[in-house]
Amino acid sequence: MCLAYPYKIVEIKNEWTAVAETQGVKTEISLQLLPEPVKEGDWVLVHVGFAIQKLSEKEAEESLKAWDELLKQSEPYLE
Fold it and tell me: GO terms for biological process (predicted)?
């Protein structure tokens, strides 16, 4: 099982790397595992620094909502 988080591509640095952002956090990611090209504004799932799948904006929003709900449920265990 892998856990991946949706990020929006904000800058293409070169053929293999990009800067992506989610919830105000920017990070450099690898594009090497994607089967298709991406452009600025596209959403991708990121797992350990690698974009692994392109998403629609709707899919990204649904995924972010699911992550938020999951994290809210785990708050009592983090205290």
Answer: protein maturation
